User: Fold Putative amino acid transporter from Leucosporidium creatinivorum.
Amino acid sequence: MKTQIGLGVLSIPYVLSVFGWVPGIILLLAVAAITTWADLEFGGRWKRAHPESYSVSDVGSIVAGRWGREFCGWIYFLYQVSVTGSAFIGLSTALNAVSSHATCTATFIGILAVAAFILSSTPTLRPLSIASYVGLLCILSAIFVVAVGVNVQERPAAAPATGPWDKQLLVVGNPSFQEAMLALSNLVFSFSGTPSFLPIASEMKNPRQFKKAALLCQGVVTSVFLLIGIMVYYACGVYVASPALGSAGPLLKKISYGMAIPGLLVTMTLCTHLPAKWLMLRLLRGTPHLTANTVRHWVTWEGCIFVCVLISYLFASAVSNFSSIIGLIGALLGTFLCMQGMAISRLYDEGQDIKNGKRRNWLLTSWCLFVLAVGTFITVAGTYASVVSIIDVYRTSPGAAWSCDDNSGSV
Assistant:
């Protein structure tokens, strides 16, 4: 649940404001259905059929050999460090809100990079799994405080301070192609925790419980996304902020961001730890140093964490707009990891079954081809929309990179 409910939930009200009630909810349920299948496919059926798989790169190796290993592995690596970068932005926004912009935003991001290095150094997922319970509770509490608060207060923070105002709630929105694809990419990002499901399944005490855990996870995640999106969009309409925590008034914004900080810290830590572990496995696989308590083991481990944090820091400092950055991650990297990759791996196994004399399941083949087509379209169109959005940000704010400006009031 923590790999799914993190930064993405903060963009759901924005997605509804772009598409309107009906298309927004339909698209949310459609993405939830596709990613639920991918989650079950990845951590469940594929893991049982190929127990030697630990990460996405292992899947690529089985399907396409060395080139598949390298391609899938680096896509996974870049996705995770990009999510950490977006967590830096979310956390810097939270720290600016809570402290009333006590210092330069670039300084906050630098401090968070140091924190990520320290917190991610734990060698196993066990301490992080415990922290994830706390992080999940904190992020849910924060977003529900905002959802209730904006429905109780007279008007959202971005609405005109005085005089009449109109939420402009829409049953069906009328976005431009670029606006629609950016919002859809944000939605895909919200559900793109799929690549983390395989390493989590690999470290479970009882992997047979994975299917039940994954279905429970997706049921709760989808319900929370719907509830939060509907409540906040109903209260704010076109004045909804992204991240959604900025939709509340000054006091509620401080409270909600303060409550969200532990949850965002856990997201930051998880998404630094997982790619660092992938990188270490890649460097030390086949050597005794992979599991031995040696100097080479610990130097390699800390070095991998440092590389991940450095890339995340550079990414967060260079691209400072929340919606644009998670849209880019969702479209360019997230879709392959939770849509096309799963469809290709399932088609590969089906091809092996046919070679062994089994009949083709045409319904499953059609579904995989559909997921492959949808994912590819979102990758191309969503990346275009996100890049255009980032260019627009730099056109209006040329000094956005490594900026000291307060980002807690941005929408």
Q: What stands out?
A: The domain at 8-396 is CATH 1.20.1740.10 (Amino acid/polyamine transporter I).
